[in-house]
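User: Continuing from earlier, I have the next pair ready.

Assistant: Great, send them over.

User: Here they are, in order.

Assistant: Folding the first of the pair now:
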Amino acid sequence: MTPDNLHSKDGFGFFREASLPLSIALVIPVGALLVLLGLLLFPVNLGLIPFSPDGQLGLLLVIMAIQMLALGETPMGQYRRSWLLIVIGIAFAAMGIFSCIVPGILTGVIRPLLALLNIAGGAILLTKRFLPMLHGAAEPAVLPPILKRLLITLTVLNVVAIAFGISMLLPGLVPGMVIAGIVVINGLLLFVLASTLLKMG
């Protein structure tokens, strides 16, 4: 082991090597981006700062693509990183980057795509989680507090994803301030999820 490696592992404070799993290391910046986006949407809805809807949609699609490519994580759940999933991730990333750079062309494609993915993903994950409980004849097992917290966090995340998808599919139905609040809540829940997973690890 070289002196550099020893320094990186046994250093002090911020210079010490972080023992964060890749999945959690990706969740944290996604949560930060969503909180920042949601907070910026409040002055946007008040007309205080300019806003590019295509930039927002493109950013969300790129984030989704990174999760697919790095972890196999999709709105429908986690899957093996097959070549099909990698190709889909690259296509999503390309669409998102294009939307950020050249606004107005892919808006009609990306908005309903993100809306349907969030709605379907939230509904599917909720169904997978609670359908076996509803059909189980035996009494549900008592969960440890940490698992109960994880279950509640994931459930709220799925409900928020469905609400966000509906707001994107029907943009005039939900007020902009409510959408901003949904995005902030989504980001904060990701921090809670990362904290819970770290404690479980």
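And the other member of the pair:
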Amino acid sequence: MTSLTRRRFLRGSAAAGAAVALGACSSAPRPRSPNEEVRVAVAGLRGRGRDHVAGFARLPNVRVVALCDVDSAVLAQAAAQLEQQGTHAAAYADYRALLDRADVDAVSIATPNHWHALQAVWACQAGKDVYVEKPVSHNVWEGRQIVHAARRHRRIVQAGTQCRSSGAIRDAFAWVREGNLGRITLARGLCYKPRPGIGRVDGPQAPPGSVDYELWTGPAPMKPLRRRNLHYDWHWDFDTGNGDLGNQGIHQMDLCRWALGESALPPRVFSLGGRLGYEDDGNTPNTLLTYLEYERAPLLFEVRGLPRDKAAQSGDWGRGMDSYRGAQIGVIVHCQDGFLRVPDYSSAVACAADGAEIRRWEGADDHYANFIAAVRSRRPQDLTAEIEEGHLSSALCHLGNLSYQVARGGPAADSGWLAEARDRMLEHLQRNGVDPAAVQRGAWLDVDPGQERLAAPADAAAQALLTRAYRAPYVMPERV
């Protein structure tokens, strides 16, 4: 860090400390008039970040006043696009400098996963409301820290799980929980999404010249880049991403937990899978089966990144993916007398046991608009995806990955839903030319839901994966 940046950081840390000291006794910000302008800053401007800019810019009486990205080329492009639309936004490489601005009301975070929680906590401490992309955290502990920060500083914090703004899905889940299909027996999440390999390199790679790699790395270990692409492929490195369970899968994991009506972590979790079918520089599984053993009904999650068979690998993977009961990236809520299918982000279909359609729901509201409405009302309960909901669903993904990372050997022998899903997964892998013996069995982990820790006696290595070793000065504080 330069001396100027270091001074700014220390000054910001002191201000954050003062905010922490005062936060518990400060009065909540006043409600805003719908005609009062809300000024938003967006951090992370590739992929989802571009959607954040467009999503907020189109809302009435909302203005994007600042942009932040560690890639100067991406930052310049985003700023230029806003200028063409008649809006000037200040540009920042360092997120901490952005938080010094008194005219920023809210920060929208679309950076890589390993930055989400720390940036959200810093924003709360700086008196900003927060919209943070999914998963809201990179590990279980730091997700709860965002919740603590939101409560202490009385901030409006929305998780980017936009399915929560679908009235159709909300009504469908309520209809199912009323018993219209009998008792729920299983919530099954599906992430059958094409994920070809990212290639292999034979040594350290130079990051793009436009990127401040030290800032990009932030709280993660400072290591040489050992893959072809810095951007996006960070999803497949456990130092910075959470695999597809925590990338695409977090949406469907959240829907499953919502359908079950669960508001805590499960008592037990188990995963098995692997990065199978190719060799590349990723280390997160492209095939994963996760079983979350809630008492009322289990939650089972299936990740498949390979297409349906070896022949499909030579064609368009997107057209060659498996499906289950009419869904590829969706949710199936199994019930005694039928099932509910949620095939996308805004609809649901109730079916009898033979698959005949009984009822259909469609429609969703704007998730960004919901956040802005809550910023104006100052009522966290107005949010459709309040931060605690985002934390819990993100934590389910982290627990699934954690079980996988604490390997125990070959596939588990079991019965019921888990055995059924395991057998279909092994058949899928065999069709892709993968030896089932390559599947890695995770550990059955007992969880203390109240403490959000592994129950004793827990493997020390497993317990350590509930958090991470943060790289100074990008350290998540114990007291937020």
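Worth noting for the second one:
The mean pLDDT is 93. The chain has two domains: 3-163, 168-364+388-464.
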